[in-house]
């Protein structure tokens, strides 16, 4: 039996989270059009008759402006060093850029088999896909190359079968009945943060954190209290919205997805608090569960 780890690395908005959800066939990573959506390592587990593949979605690697972003980059680099295969996920619809070169150098230094996952090919005509793909092939000797559309493609059997060939023999790392080992509270908090990303604009989403303060569940229902943290009072007003309308919408959207996750009726209460400059404070970043730490 084959058993091993695969890291998904790439720039923000390359489609890593969409791909891991498609591979696992369940939504375990939040998705949005805004960069830096993924802040922490997300693991998705695919079990077949002869293999267990543990996929790790890493934060998008980018130029850091805050301590949080520095730690996100460090987490991505740390994950890359501890796997068997790397998927370098790239947005094939845009030309190669300096950010791609930075990620490529990090991946190259890992000394592991690297698959080029050439994503978003549905956005381009075939001729353009081939042209952009050729420019990538000239820059690195990839072990395998897979042009895909993580958003629209349903069958990834070829990718999975090829990946198995690069994994060591071994027993499963996780029970075969789970698709992710991320804690339930973490997944709930991420769902709420996803709805903030969907309903707000500009800088506000990146300055928010979500903490589950209380959760009581039985066989029929679950009562959850969650705290949304922002860095400025003006951001708090934006999250709440006129007469509380936006906060109510965030809660309604989040509750629907949380109910799908938990399988019971959910009573969700959201609060908003200002926590100035939390993205530059290591203690707060750790407390809220984001980014790699040496502690």
Q: Given the C-alpha coordinates, what overall shape results?
A: globular
| Structural class estimated from helices and strands | alpha/beta
Order of helices and strands: EHEEHEHEHEHHEEHHEH
CATH superfamily of the largest domain: P-loop containing nucleotide triphosphate hydrolases
Beta-strand portion reads: 15-25%
Q: Any idea of the CATH class of the largest domain?
A: Alpha Beta
Compute the gyration radius: what is it? 20 Å
Number of strands: 9
User: What is the number of domains?
Assistant: 2
Q: Helix count?
A: 9
Overall pLDDT score: 84
Let me know the largest β-sheet.
6 strands, mixed
Cα-to-Cα separation, first versus last residue: 35 Å
Indicate the CATH topology of the largest domain: Rossmann fold
> Level of helix content?
25-40%
Q: So, CATH architecture of the largest domain?
A: 3-Layer(aba) Sandwich
Strand order of the largest sheet: 2-3-1-4-5-6
Low-confidence stretches: 34-39
């Amino acid at each position: 039996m084959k058993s091993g780890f695969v890291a998904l690395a790439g720039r923000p908005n390359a489609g890593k989270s969409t791909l891991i959800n498609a591979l696992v066939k369940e939504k375990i990573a939040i998705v949005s059009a805004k960069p830096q959506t993924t802040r922490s390592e997300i693991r998705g587990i695919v079990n077949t008759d002869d293999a267990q593949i543990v996929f790790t979605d890493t934060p998008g690697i980018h130029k850091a402006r805050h301590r949080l972003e520095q730690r996100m980059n460090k987490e991505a680099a740390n994950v890359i060093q501890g796997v068997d295969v790397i998927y370098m996920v790239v947005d094939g619809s845009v030309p190669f850029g300096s950010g791609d070169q930075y990620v490529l150098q990090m991946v190259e230094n890992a000394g592991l088999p690297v698959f080029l996952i050439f994503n978003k090919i549905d956005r381009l005509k075939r001729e353009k896909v081939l042209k952009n793909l050729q420019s990538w092939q000239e820059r690195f000797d990839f072990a395998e190359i897979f042009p895909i559309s993580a958003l629209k493609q349903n069958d990834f059997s070829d990718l999975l079968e090829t990946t198995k060939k690069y994994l060591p023999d071994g027993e499963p790392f996780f029970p075969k009945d789970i698709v992710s080992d991320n804690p339930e509270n973490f997944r709930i908090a991420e769902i709420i943060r996803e709805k903030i990303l969907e309903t707000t604009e500009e800088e506000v989403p990146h300055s928010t954190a979500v903490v589950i303060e209380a959760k009581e569940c039985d066989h029929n229902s679950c009562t959850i209290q969650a705290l949304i943290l922002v860095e400025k009072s003006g951001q708090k007003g934006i999250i709440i919205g006129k007469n509380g309308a936006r906060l109510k919408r965030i809660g309604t959207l989040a509750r629907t997805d949380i109910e799908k996750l938990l399988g019971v009726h959910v009573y969700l209460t959201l609060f908003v608090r200002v926590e100035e400059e939390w993205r530059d404070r290591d203690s707060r970043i750790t407390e809220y569960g984001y980014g790699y730490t040496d502690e």
